[in-house]
Amino acid sequence: MGRGRIEIKKIENPTNRQVTYSKRRLGIMKKAKELTVLCDADVLVIMSSITGKFAEYCSPTTNTKGLMDRYQQVTGIDLWKDPYEKMQSTLRNLEEVNRNLRREIRQRMGEDLDGLSVKELRGLEQSLDETLMNVRRRKYHVITTQTDTYKKKLRSTHEAHKSLLRELEMRDELQGCGLGTGDAPDVGNEGARVLAFRVQPSLQPSILGLGYGSHDLSLV
């Protein structure tokens, strides 16, 4: 038993419609390839599904532009007219936008103001005032940030200077007491540790290995 004849009308079910399109698309592409080989024909097939996905086939020896030109000559239809007009319209719109932007730049620089009305001049003045306020706000922010950074660097340098002074005073005190720099305790760069040595009067100088009496030694 053969298959029943299918009525040619739109398939309402979207899933069935897509499946039918996929199957028949493959059959059309196969027939197009066969025509190209068997008949040495120039074949160009373009299809689009309901999902917007394109499928195309062009025979290997076909000059697409030449085939389209021959089609236009035979049918009298200009295939490039609508796309060309659309591109021209887009170009005109972009040129107009470009002119407006250039004019706005000149006006912000104080040029090309002759054709502006009082309302437009007020709007331009307000826009410039807002722009100036933004620039000043940004300038003050940068200045404040740089000042804070310089203050931190200065504070760090001042603390390092005080630490060096304390270390030098400590070395001078040790040398004044007869201790060499090699006998000084190890004091860190931070100068955070204080070492205090106090020699009691009751202790004999020979015990400490020193040739003089009692002294108060303070190491900072």
List keywords for this structure.
5 helices; RNA polymerase II transcription regulatory region sequence-specific DNA binding; two-stranded antiparallel sheet; MADS-box transcription factor; 220 residues; disordered C terminus; elongated; mainly alpha; TF_Kbox; DNA-binding transcription factor activity; SRF-like
Strand content: 5-15%
SSE sequence, one letter per element: HEEHHHEHE
Give the strand line-up of the largest sheet. 1-2
Q: What is the CA-based Rg, rounded?
A: 47 Å
Distance between the termini: 114 Å
Helix content percent band: 55-70%
Rounded average pLDDT: 78
What is the strand tally? 4
Mass-distribution shape: elongated
Question: What ranges have pLDDT less than 50 throughout 5 or more consecutive residues?
Answer: 181-220
Largest sheet entry: 2 strands, antiparallel
| Protein structure class | mainly alpha
Number of helices: 5
Describe this structure in words.
With 220 residues, the protein is mainly alpha-helical. The protein has helices at 14-39, 64-75, 81-108, 118-176, 205-208, and strands at 44-48, 54-58, 195-198, 216-219. Among the domains are: 14-78, Transcription factor, MADS-box (SRF-like, 3-Layer(aba) Sandwich), CATH 3.40.1810; 154-219, no CATH class. The protein has five helices and four strands, in the order αββαααβαβ. The strands form two sheets. A two-stranded antiparallel sheet has the order 1-2. Strand 1 (44-48) and strand 2 (54-58) form a beta hairpin. The relative contact order is 0.04. The model is unreliable at 181-220 (pLDDT under 50).
